[in-house]
Amino acid sequence: MLTFHVPEMSCGHCVAAIERAVRALDARADVTVDLAARKVTVKTTREAAEIRQAIDEAGYQAERIAA
Q1: One digit per residue, pLDDT tens: the chain, 67 residues?
Q2: What residues are paired with 34 via a beta bridge?
Q3: Is 13 helix (H, G, I), strand (E, B) or coil?
């Protein structure tokens, strides 16, 4: 499970864009968003760098949070 801090995520549109970007990379990914904490948790077989890049390409800077 991978967790990222996404400080610029502030609304439902942001959440949808991030979920869409992650699922474009891995359609089977389980994406959980905590908008208040600005955290995105992804259960996937993909590497953390790939998920981070997908979030970044959606327009949101993401930092991995160590488990």
Answers
A1: 999 999 999 999 999 999 999 999 999 999 999 999 999 999 999 999 999 999 999 999 999 998 6
A2: 39
A3: helix
CATH number, domain containing residue 27:
3.30.70.100
Q: What pTM was computed for the model? A: 0.90
Q: What is the DSSP track for 32-51? A: EEETTTTEEEEE-SS-HHHH
Q: Which two tokens mark 43?
A: 């259960």
Number of domains in the chain: 1
What is the domain range of residue 55?
2-65
Per-residue DSSP letter, 11: S
Q: Report yes or no: 38 and 12 within 8 Å, Cβ to Cβ.
A: no
